[in-house]
Batch of 2 targets.
Target 1
Amino acid sequence: MEGISKSFPGVQALRDVQFEVQGGEVHALVGENGAGKSTLMRILGGVHQRDAGEIHLRGQPVEIPSPVYARMLGISIIHQELNQVPALPVAENIFLGREPRRAGGFVDWKTMYARANTLLQDLGLPIDPRRRLGTLTVAEQQLVEIAKALSVEADLVIMDEPTAALTVEETERLFRFIRDLRPRGVGIVYITHRLEEIFTIADRVTVLRDGQYVGTYAIGELTMDGLIRLMVGRQLTEKFPKEPVAAGAPVLEVRGLTSRGRFTDVSFTVHRGEILGIAGLIGSGKAAVAHAIFGAIPVDSGEILVDGHPVTIRSPSEAIAHGIGLVTEDRKRLGLVLGMSVTANITLPVLPELETAGFVRRREEAARVTQAIRDLDMAVASPEQPARNLSGGTQQKVVVAKWLQTRARVLLLVEPTRGIDVGAKVEMYRLMVDLARRGVGIVMISSELPEILGMSDRILVMHEGRITGEFPRETATQEAILASASGRIHRA
Amino acid sequence: MRDILRRFGILFAFILLMVVLAFLSDSFLTVNNLLNIARQVSINAIIAAGMTFVILTFGIDLSVGSVLAFSGAIIAGLLSRGHPLVVGIGAGLLVGGLIGLVNGLIITKGGVQPFIATLGMLTIARGATLVYTDGRPITGLPDAFVWLGAGEIARIPVPVVIMTVVFAASYVVLTQTVLGRYIYAIGGNEEATRLSGVNVAFYKTLAYVISGALSALSAVILTARLNSAQPTAGMGYELDAIAAVVLGGTTLAGGEGGIAGTLLGAFIIGVLNNGLNLLNVSSFYQQVVKGVVILLAVLLDRRLR
């Protein structure tokens, strides 16, 4: 791809960008959110049309007018968001739209299941192709999506954040598979925010910044710091800007909390100004704890105390009334109303404060939102911009801004930096420190060990719905946490 | 340009339709005919206003036509027995609102899909109407009531005045109030709205109450205009209302659209009906043409988005 430019109303998304993938290489594409990675790949995948520039495939200039056409050209995209039918079996999802046929147009089920089976075994996936997709874990669904992309025998596979929901072992399995693909001459474009993965799997890396081409480098000539510098265009002083904050009185106490089938007998205390990290593998029930405290899923037994007083929380509105806020793991599905404006999203939890006789006091609302945009340094074109058009990092700020509006004293953050870029991650951490300094008690639930270790004052580890370990900041190590996360009991 | 087309595409379609009809028929573009259209449109438009609230929450209300018939019967029943106007109309609106409340509770508390819940209510309310009226029209209504359907205020037909008030109020509610904000938020992302502390069940139910009450209000107009309550009144009205909402650019997926478009949508259907009548198109063909125009308009709209 050469000289690619693309603009959307109000934004120049790409300016004169070049990008080249060779057969048999894994080419990482990196850049902060809004750098233009996704736009570039959507042009390659036929979703968007470029304004200028040329695309060559196997040396020939090509036009890619539609996603279907891209697939015919041997370009296959694995999307960040899953694009599947949960009610259908795995095999039917893999072959959706291109089922093997027999004479007369009937689906050749036997061939389909046999091929699905081979494919899954190739990937080392112990998944029955007959199972309904919806019954698989998110990680397994992701792997099925990858299997689907590979089944079209594409020459070019674009993987957009393929490991976002995968565990360490599943990621390893995926990497093994990617390495197997290389000798077959398949070119792979690998997009990720997990930079350490790039050094594990990629041969070359192309960096974009603000819609412009920065450069393409062999992986051997880069260091992690160097790569980050290229991406953000400046030196990031520290990755985890944690500051010690004197912990105050307990603000949230949880005693023996149990939600059947999700987690059992969870107890902990968060103090004012404290960041409590909760680590655990996918399926450990750690996210469910946050949702239960927030009243979004039912609790079977146990007690919740806010500021030392027992409270009953049966719904999110009661949790909010008690000063609790929840930043969910899935901001698009649970955190934002994507079609509504930044303004409407930010004030959604506090409209009752902003009304007179049912009418929204628009001027006051606008003032509050302007203030929030300034406080959190949000990159928005206008407060009336739909949340849909914002980058991941900015969307996450909008979600946090909601709970700053409610003046939450306890903030439950679930995977607060999932799918956002390095710069935005550091901003999110700064924000957490800032809130802690103001006396907010923070529960950070995360699958990312580095941020758990880097940001928490205290760390709890969960395994299969129970707390299996507690570590003070000083003595926590990656090894000890992983051991607890796989079930070994540890008490500080 | 594309942006303008997108925002006002339906308006252009409407103007185009007006121009074409003005050329085809001399009697189309006259004050009397236009007022006549507005009066005919008012009933569907008022129902469609309520439907807009419901569809914005990602719901649907199929019971509106039957609710119209039942409320109309209640109103006519009370008035024909000599009860005061306020009592009759008040009872009718109350019944409409209550049916909406039941719809809303079945959907939010019972977890039944809106399509099924209101389909059930469509049948129930129609049956109840037949039971109540014994299948016969109710007549003998007071003149003051009939004025609501046939009267004029400064040459403007009373139904048109009522329609204007309904749309102005709906516009204000949807754009300026907390209720409006919640309606859009629920349709846009119900779960995220719930997690923002909004009592989703309450506001969704309220949308159905509004729809029921506005169906009852249109029953007032229809009953007054016909000077009787017909047990079969309002059959198929749900489809015209849904068509008006969708023509107006509100998506059935909820969360996007608005009340101004609905008014335009209702007028497109009304103008089309009127124009085809003026052109002496047989009523059989009218249905075909109407359907085609609705589909074309929506297709055009999708293309521009």
Target 2
Amino acid sequence: MSSWFVTHGAAFIVVLPLLMAAITAVLPAVRRLAWFTALVVVSLVALVAFIVLQTQIDLGAFIYRMGGWEPPHGISLGIDAVNAPIALLIAAMGVATLVYAEPAVDSEVQRKKRAPFYAAFLLCVAGLLGMVVTGDAFNVFVFLEVSSISTYTLVAMGANRDRRALSAAFNYLILGSIGATFFVIGIGFLYAETGTLNMADMRQILANLDGGSRVAQVGFGFVLVGLGLKLAMFPLHTWLPGAYAYSPTAVTAFLASTATKAALYLLYRFMFTVFDPSFDYVAVTLTYVVTALAVIGMVFASLQALFQTDARRTLAFSSVAQVGYMLLGIGLISTLGLVGSYLHLINHAVVKGGLFLCLGAMWYRFGITRISDMAGLGKTMPITTAAFTVLAFSLIGVPFTAGFVSKVALAEAALERGWYWAVAVIMIASILALLYMGRMMMVAYFSPPPASALNSDGRVQRREAPLLMLVPMIGLAVTSVLIGVRGNVYLAEVSENAARVLLPGGGL
Amino acid sequence: MRIPVKPKPAKGPVVPPAGSDPHVLLRVISKFLIPLIALFAFYVQFHGEYGPGGGFQAGVILAVSIILYALIFGLAEAKRAFPPWLVRLGMTLGVLLYGGTGVVAWLLGGEFLNYSVLFPDPIDGQHYGIIAIELGVLTTVTSVMVAFFYAFGSRQPDIEDGDW
């Protein structure tokens, strides 16, 4: 059985959630049935994604021929050192969010919409995994739309709690569709230039043409802008704060940890393995445009995060800033830079997913959305606040946490290039992170709890989050510390392998 | 200026008194055309392997016949003929028919959606495999088109015309 997954696992992790989503959509509205189905499916997907990763590590890169058709004419799935870890990351974050989702969705989404909610969630998982594993450029667009359209639905389901979710979802729908359209126009230009949709084949033909004519350059621009919208590259991030702040809490955590990451993976894939930084226009764009936007985004979005009153909007703007770190790593065009970027992608998925889970638990117990309402949480929800603190330290980049490992890696990469100013920007953005995360922790620990949280005898009443919420958030907090302490052993190797695949020549 | 308030449509099928139906031509011709449209949908479906056509186009045409029925005879009548629960089931069944073909190919030892393993002769396999897939596409596309129409058609305006 295991050997079957070794051969067919890459397709299985996309097909299983896709088909189970269709079944989940028509399940009767029995309590927990849809949730349980989704949890079993995503757990199985995570398991198979792990087998696929192991296969990739043992045997190296491999492709899966859909329907038995040979590439470049048939659609193939390609697994290599870059996408296998990200597929596992998406599936694992899906499991963590789904464990959390049962109590949260129970209170946020109407009963009759619960089965469609989990169906849309499974579709989103399938779409994201499909985007990551596929080796066909047009197939990427199809899966991008599968994940995006299900995401719009998921965001809009927050309307039961806050009507602003509807306008946020509509905003995301318009901008997301523009992004996808740009992307597919870019693919069209590339198809016109190379006559193929298979990404490996496209790379070969573009390399033979030495970057291709102006048609390929236009295609490059469209792909960059389209993916930039999807991964919330500053200043194309305006859909993100609303979508993160008003969607159901489980959806926010899942989106923050996977959706922008899958789009960022596609940016790696297109910038480094379809195009190549050895083409002039790619190198210039990455060095000047992407790096500049990354740096401006890091500082500007951090400043915006500092002035938010809504806790989830703060973290949403922080996400835009963190995307800036990852883009900076791309802009360096060096193996070290990509190692840092890749590490930060994984770390940020774990950390931001965990932080949104904690905020969701706070909303679940006390209906908290504003930072000023977080008063006294250190006493009323000590475990949740402790997990929140650990993850916040990791976001800031305190030593022995995940954020430290990747920020140091990025700073080293910048030093190697001689970009001392980039190290300064990383420091400034980290200090700003300290300020906006510190503001929340100050309120949580040092403000007295509101009178409604006190017993009749004046003692603080503890109202900890339910166990199903605590388990994933503690798990993610512990993971972030483990990465911080032992990250240089396992994750560093994963990132280095990925960077070597992306930049076999070692960059500029 | 006051916009005249439109009278609300009566529930259920509209049965006008004999001889006074202004839409009698539309009704009679639609009744004649709807089965032909549906038949043409299946022609496009099964001719799809040899000429232009296939599951998507056929699904749209089949849905058009239902939508025309709803336009002429009213949404309530259309929902009686093609109930919403059937629409929901159809959306799922189509996807499962498509994906299920792939799963059967898996169970028979081939790659996902490799129709050649479905039958002893690979050419037969490709032939029947694509027919099964196209049937799935037909089912889903028809259901989704009708679901869109029902969703927009059933929508009550938030603000009545008279409220302005």
